[in-house]
Fold this sequence. Notes:
alpha/beta; 7-stranded mixed sheet
Amino acid sequence: MIDFSNFYQLIAKNHLCHWLETLPAQIAAWQRDALHGQFKQWNNAVEFLPEMTPYKLDLLHSVTAQSETPLDEGQKRRIEKLMRNLMPWRKGPFSLYGVDIDTEWRSDWKWERVLPHLSDLSGRTILDVGCGSGYHLWRMIGAGAHLAVGIDPTQLFLCQFEAVRKLLGNDQRAHLLPLGIEQLPALKAFDTVFSMGVLYHRRSPLEHLWQLKDQLVSGGELVLETLVVPGDEHTVLVPGDRYAQMRNVYFIPSALALKNWLAKCGFVDIRIADECVTTTEEQRRTGWMTTESLADFLDPKDQSRTVEGYPAPVRAVLIATKP
Length: 323
């Protein structure tokens, strides 16, 4: 069973210590009552992985671990087989001792778009909400963060993160907790909070923005990346049953409307840092994610529309400060 005691010990000594009033009980309840039917199988894949300490670790340009001498084919096959037991891999890519996990998303491209617009991450304590496999947590550490904490209730992602961490020498600078943002108390403790690819899944988007603000220190920075549509500050798309085949998409604002939402929630210094079309090179099916992907969600006769007739996915990055 995945052990969170290292994280508890870590935060007991810093400004996150008051989180210990609620967190251990939440994790215990999750372990007792809420484990996914396949969790044991996923956890076994993590348990059977060898503990590796990289001779060379690059988190600045990628997530790449290398050994001093290349692994033999049997060792590589063992690692690959166990990592394939944790498919589908959506966020990445990872290169671990010659095993290349080609994920559905080129999350490295997103990071390269976002990073130039951020305040320096050196020494910062960071929260990544809806962090998936934790790919960006490692890139945050590579950019100098002191501690990167991810939350995501999807248990497969937790096991993927723990598998990668085990192959990175059990690195304690990044941690993933199987929680949603609504389960966090108002910690007011993080220097930077990321919410990437989450807002459109929230039934109450302004409440989500308030929840993010409640996690930031005064003067802290919010990095918000989400789907947007073309239009002025009053434009918001409320899709029908599905958007790009996703069921749980509630509100897609224009970037200008989103700027207004952030202002309404009390953020300042709000800016649209980036806006770009999601391409079928950035999100696609691979040998590590073999089901439908973006190409299947777009109108085959008009790639500027989804199969439902809505504008095709465009993502914007907004950066704002908590006063």
